[in-house]
Amino acid sequence: MNKKKKELSTTQVIMLGFLSVILVGTLILMLPVCSKEGSVTPFLTSLFTATTCVCVTGLVVVDTYAHWSVFGQIIILLLIQIGGLGVVTLSTYILTLLGQKISLKQRLLLEDALNLDTIAGLLRFIRRVFAGTLIVEGIGALLYMLVFVPEMGLKGIWVSVFNSVSAFCNAGVDIIGPASLAPYVANPIVNITTMLLIVSGGIGYVVWWDVIHVVKEYRKGEIHRNHIWKRLRLHSKIVLVTTLGMIVTGFLITLLLEWNNPETLGSLSIPVKLQAAMFQSVTLRTAGFFTISQKGLYNSTAFLSLIFMFIGGSPVGTAGGIKTTTIAVLLIATWSTIKGRDFSAVFNRKINPATVRKALSVTIISLCAALLALTMILTFCKGDFMDLTFEVFSAIGTVGLTRGVTSTLNTMGRIIIIICMYLGRTGPISLVIALNNIRSKSTGKMEYPEESITVG
């Protein structure tokens, strides 16, 4: 009896793709040539580093600038770039460069990887993504060189390139020193450049091209300036408003709660306080760089930071988290319920009920994954409750900020954080779908009688 060959779903392919790159990266980083001492790096340390790079998180168990050789740092940078752009996206682009024909199945896979709702113009979109990425990262590197080259000499060029790619990909890995960007807390060039790279990578490529398209229409005189906002897609409007709202809210929270904290903002001048508070808010978008001590944050600030890290950036970009659009859709649905509407709407547009259900599913599954990981790490690791909670939410949101516990975690703790980073990049709901697709599919649809229940 012939058995029908089972094919992997697109979700399974994407998850296995990330896992394959992580494992290959691990094996390469274990090579003696990758460490400054010329010795073999332990498997778990290499696995942790490869995972944090591919999943663009930034948590590290060994200092990147101190442990890894230049070759090792190059491998790390490549893993960050692959992780930021996405395994499927990168492989597809390479195939197009080689002149290979992209099949319909591969296009559908790419559509799923980028979380897009259509395959129309997909390859053109990918080419623009790569071109835009190189341009933005190049500009960021040049701006960094204004500071790092005079300070470090020729080494400053490599540091600038590394930092630019890491910031754009929202990775948070740096080769400057143990204090990340804290020595540059008062440097406007480093701060502004980093924040712009983080935001540009985090808002998503779809928003990029939508804004550019509308601006071009305005410059050609096709639309009036008063209609620029109206011409943007609903997705772009939600991303821009939510991102701006979260950055401003995070800025105000940090500024108000940490104003007199001697371990964070307390000793800084007012202009530097404003700059540091804004940087802290932006880096919570899943970037991982810091200019003020995360360990020194008051528990109230750290707790609210968990929420911002959990939300993260926006879809079809380099950031992690459940995404700004997810939380926005839930808030819109909640407000619509309060208003007594039987549908969700914003900016004079209805939101598909399926989108609301997906947003709810992503949030619940991600939160359950975070709480399960937190329970496990509290069971197997000793440490301060807030420090460990901060670590878990930073990992599952692929943020990379830490309160100084990453390198102190035991073997079980590191394994838990590795799993959190992987789930944070691929998405907890993707894992559920991937596992569910392994089971045989139902041959038909079933309908059930409807019945009301009381909630609230």
Topology:
Layout lengths: L9 H20 L13 H12 L9 H4 L2 H16 L1 H11 L6 H10 L8 H31 L2 H14 L19 H15 L2 H15 L8 H4 L2 H25 L11 H14 L15 H13 L12 H15 L5 E3 L2 E3 L1 H28 L4 H12 L14 H16 L1 H11 L18
Antiparallel strand pairs: 1-2
Helix pairs in contact: 1-2, 1-4, 1-6, 1-19, 2-4, 2-18, 4-8, 5-7, 7-8, 7-9, 8-9, 9-13, 10-12, 12-13, 12-14, 14-17, 15-16, 16-17, 16-18, 17-18
Q: What is the subunit organization of this protein?
A: single chain
Strand content: under 5%
C-alpha end-to-end distance: 54 Å
Tell me the structural class. Answer: mainly alpha
Largest sheet: 2 strands, antiparallel
Summarize the amount of helix as a percent range.
55-70%
Shape: globular
Give the count of structural domains. Answer: 1
Order of helices and strands: HHHHHHHHHHHHHHHEEHHHH
Low-confidence stretches: 438-443
Task: Round the mean pLDDT to the nearest integer and report it.
Answer: 86
Order the strands across the largest sheet as they lie in space. Answer: 1-2
Rg, nearest Å: 22 Å
Topology, number of strands: 2
Tally of alpha and pi helices: 19
